[in-house]
Amino acid sequence: MKRLLFALPVLVFVVLVGYFLLGLQRDPSTLPSALIDKPVPEFGLPALTDKPGLAAADLRGQVTLVNFFASWCVPCRVEHPVLMRIGKSVPLVGIAYKDKPEDSRRFLEELGDPYARIGVDRDGRTAIDFGVYGVPETYVVDKEGKIRLRFVGPLTPKAWDEEIAPLVRRLQS
Description:
Low-confidence stretches: none
CATH topology: Glutaredoxin
Number of domains: 1
Order of helices and strands: HEEEHEHEHEEH
Distance between the termini: 67 Å
Mean pLDDT: 89
Largest sheet: 5 strands, mixed
Strand order of the largest sheet: 5-4-3-6-7
CATH superfamily: Glutaredoxin
Number of helices: 5
Helix content: 25-40%
């Protein structure tokens, strides 16, 4: 009995180490989303620039990428050249997440503006409704306004070419 009591903490430790090692092998960009294949949450956001603001109704009728970004987000700067390329060929809208509008505008003036529309989510409520963990995050929304993919982290050319663009092409046809 004493041996069993001594072995119990070791067994618990081994199980916990195994659990955490399995977790480390997961790709963080594949975090699950309860909203996959469900309609985008209802929202309406004011405009950041002279372009129109953004609402859920704007995400119906064509395949659209929704990108949550912020001026204070370093990975957002890293992904921005990819967004500039994508925005020329696919409808791309932005949501400025918990950012001062003047900072978001300055960010886009400095790096370029790839977005057709930009909404301001000052309090982060829309991001919470989408299930955003942190910026940047990008969602592929189909013609019916349903979320089909959630991509966590900065978009890379490889992720675009191998994962997102093929899905977008399939949904567009």
